[in-house]
Amino acid sequence: MSLPFLKMHGAGNDFVVLDGRAAPIRLPAATVRHIADRRLGVGCDQLVIIEPDEMGADAFMRILNADGSESGACGNATRCVAALLAEETGARLVSIRTISGLLRAEILGPGLVEVDMGAPLLEWGDIPLSQPADTLHLPLALGPVSDPAGCSMGNPHATFFVEDFAHLPIELIGPKLETHRLFPERANIGFALVESFSRIRLRVWERGAGLTLACGSGACAALVNAHRRGLTGRRATVAMDGGELLITWTQDGRVLMRGPAETAFAGTLPELV
User: Fold this and answer.
1) Can you say whether the dihedral through the CA atoms of 213, 217, 218, 222 is positive or negative?
2) Catalytic, out of 44, 80, 151, 215
3) How high does pLDDT run on average in the chain?
4) 151 annotated active-site
5) Which CATH homologous superfamily contains domain 3-117+260-269?
6) Which of 5, 43, 89, 176 has the most CB atoms less than 10 A away?
């Protein structure tokens, strides 16, 4: 059968969103890759399927990367799905479950959503890494970058702190760092330029998706790791190629992500899926 979809984005991080609450949607990896292809398909960083949740949340969100692999968390997608669910019910508070746990979102205004991304995981085994290591200074270097900090925001992240982006070959080193033996589940690789105590410029090579215009969990990881290094406070604006997010690491350890959620267009996938 053909499938209706919405094309949505959060700060340029874009998604094909399918509603699988009435009937299950199961797509092979090859089909996901075809849909995500920006020349042959709709084009997206991730494909998102909204499913019923058996444990009491408003919905379960399944996140499939552009390469067909499954992701545990995506902050920008969470805001988009929260905005959709809130539009249906008129609720201000929305709960969404992922394979990495429960996320709670608050609608702050039209197209503006804040998500509680939970507490970062900072132990090497929780990220996970393939060997014991100081997660504030990972033993990893390639080309012009070295000494990243690591954490998990529902998926693995390594944040390199850089002085500029002008001569940073992200497209070349990103794939190698993503699949480095230190990361048994691969990792999202962030390149952060701290502009002030309250502002970070960030680019992220996402596992399974490549260089994206924005990465919500990557923005959270960048703020957490920057604060751990003493480079920022617990609250900062994270500016990415597609827009800005406001990230707060609260005193009780939760990471809040505030930013836009927008619908670009609606369409129908043909019967090939």
Assistant:
1) positive
2) 215
3) 96
4) no
5) Diaminopimelate Epimerase; Chain A, domain 1 (3.10.310.10)
6) 5
